[in-house]
Amino acid sequence: MASQAIPVEMPEPRRARWADVLVALGLLLAVSAPPIAVLLGHDSSASAVREFRRPTARPALTLDAGELRAYPRRFEAWYRDAFGFRATLIESYNRALAVGLGQSPSSHFVLGDERWIFHREASALETFRGVLPFEDEDLVLWRRSIEQRTAHVASWGGQFLFVCVPSKLEIYPERVPARFTRLGPSRRDQLLDYMSKSTDLDLLDVKQVLHGAKVRDQPGRHVCFPYGVHWTDRGARVAYAAMLNKIAETVPGVDEPWRLEDFREEEVGGPVDSWAEKLYLEEYFTATESFFIPLRLRQSVRDESFKGSHWEDTLWRNEDTSLPTAVVYHDSNGGWLLPFLAEHFSVMYGVRHVYYDPKLMAEREPDVVLVAQTDRYLVSLLPFLQGAMNDPEFRAAFEASDDVRIGPESLAGLDFRAPFADGTVELVLDEGAARLDVTLRSGANALQLPLFDPDTGPASENRMLVLRLDLTCEKDGYLDVFLRREADAEFDSTRTFPLETRAGRHVEYIPIDRRDMAGELLLRLSHDPGQVSLHGIELRAVRRPPQFD
């Protein structure tokens, strides 16, 4: 007789309720610890300084109806900076992504080979890959801009040189993650190729000499900072030598560049040019990099008393007054470049932007005008928006124009929007006084302005639209101006004009020359200019100046 299995009911295992309680208490403690720390007076907002921005101020609670409506959003913006243990929590999260998963904890950066950091500023990665090519019209404008500057400097016998500085992406493409394949020529390649075929002007490309220097890379001695965005002293020196040799072909009295043997290399530890602090990963991204100490006696001295239009403008004076004079327009790479160049000019001005100022050049009439522009800015620093802003004739034409498209009396009818305001944009329109009062504060904020109907643009081919902004800035910085084309559903980073702002109240003029602009404009703060107050906006049609022909 076959045996039959008799099912046996097993008792349910006794749940470790004490473990459940501990888990629940741990979660409760983790969630409540940050706000409890704030209540106990622990304010973490100072950690925002590591992110290169000012912490959001705690809003005051008042009985004003408008202030009360805005209070929840302002409080939330402040709390995101002030919650307890903020730096520790961010560091732990970022370390888990960067160290544990090999992923960048920020969408602004890409982690490459051997933890190299590549910044995505100004669509640099997209430009490098060739997915944001120049349009034919843009290339023509670039050529005209360089030709006009060359002719202007030549009018007093000076020499103009445009230097295309490759970004770190171009120098170290093998460090870029393999998933970012190149799909076409970069804007840099397009511009150099077009200029070589369409004009006799000779642009200087220093990519080859930088690649030559990269062959001699070793730990602590690179052409570009592994965790930053700029070139090192090693990179700046070979680029400066190429620039000086080029200048010497047409400018008499220029000495030979200093050789590598004229310097001693010393390694310096710490994040000299590194995004590690912003990512809260200083202990993970550690490196040393060499700096050049001159073995020869320097003859140039920076004039510390000089005050230019930008806080980073510089003036260098040389003991040898027989040397030529120069003006060097540069971006943030200039901090490494200028000390090398200054040894070869009796007086050299370093201008911390690349917008050619014809009035300033005509006043100084330097023997050499050099523009060293990194290729990542070929997306945003467009030539048709350069040069006119500081031209007194251009400004006079605006003031004389009676073709007003948007004026004080029509501001109240505009549909202002703050799509990324996050409670930090305040807009007050006083119709009685026809006064505009907009306050922008550093952070994720912007103000969108529908300025005009594209069908009612410039009246004729010889006219263009000009935007006048009356603003007060807490300190030097940048206000990004986005212009949307009719064909674009959204604002395009390739149509961005970074307006360099100064501390105090001043007026800025922005030419809107494109025929395909849809009539909408977006203002967004960048590079932490602090608080910016916008007092007035006017849009007029003016006669096209010569630089826009």
Note down, in words, how this protein is organized.
The chain is built from twelve helices and 21 strands. The protein is an alpha+beta fold and 549 residues long. The protein folds into two domains: 249 residues, no CATH class; 157 residues, Sandwich (Jelly Rolls), CATH 2.60.120.260. Strand 1 and strand 2 form a beta hairpin. The longest helix has 23 residues. About 5% of the residues have low confidence.
| Fraction of helical residues | 25-40%
The main pleated sheet reads as:
7 strands, mixed
Secondary structure: number of strands:
21
Mind telling me the C-alpha Rg?
A: 28 Å
| Helix and strand composition category | alpha+beta
**Count of folded domains:** 2
- How far the N terminus sits from the C terminus, by CA atoms, comes to 108 Å
Spatial shape: globular
Average pLDDT score: 79
